[in-house]
Amino acid sequence: MTDISSALQRVQAAIGSAAQAAGRDAGSVTLLAVSKTFPAAAVREAYAAGQRRFGENYVQELQAKAAELQDLAVEWHFIGPLQSNKTRPVAELAHWVHSVERLKIAERLSAQRPATLPPLNVCIQVNVSGEDSKSGCAPDEVLPLAQAIAALPGLCLRGLMCIPEPTQDAATLAARFGVLATLQQQLAAAGIATDTLSMGMSGDMAAAIAAGSTMVRVGTAIFGARHYG
Predict the structure, then answer these.
(1) What's the rounded Cα separation, in Å, for the pair 108 and 103?
(2) Rounded to the nearest 5°, which phi and psi values hold at 160?
(3) How much of the chain, in percent, has pLDDT values that exceed 90?
(4) Less CB within 10 Å around the terminal CB: N or C of the chain?
């Protein structure tokens, strides 16, 4: 068994334990393997171990890996900040985009989504911690943005995403993740049904699952430490 295969098993077991502790079915939480900065060979290795969903942060890296791994039925998720001049390749290659924070980005993704493909699954990224350095729209902007996105033909609004500030304080984490869960309830009350809360990473996965996460984005715990440069 390879290192990545073993790591995937450990992460899936951790998801199961966290779900059980929260009184949830382990099957209600999807694992997104965040492969940014790791080579296509690592994705191929994880794919061979049964992983199908992979997250990328950079457009150029998504393009390169999608080309190199086109023989595999990978489900690509774009999870990084997206500039309006780089939406086309994402609209053409990705199955999901988690980081929609402005209507302009959503409109471009919808217009550039090939008609031969199903609508692009999208999540609205919410800045739940109010940090100036963080991407995402403000919580009070979510409902009008969701209403506008729901009307775009090339997109399918699936839910919400957040990246809270790094903290070891359990109460703070619970509050941040709770904002997203509350917003999802508000959307439902307004007639906008969603099924996805994309929240939780290697370090805060259990807290996210306890708060209702349906998709955790895990990189380091699967592929190891990242080396930027």
Answers:
(1) 9
(2) -130, 155
(3) 93
(4) C
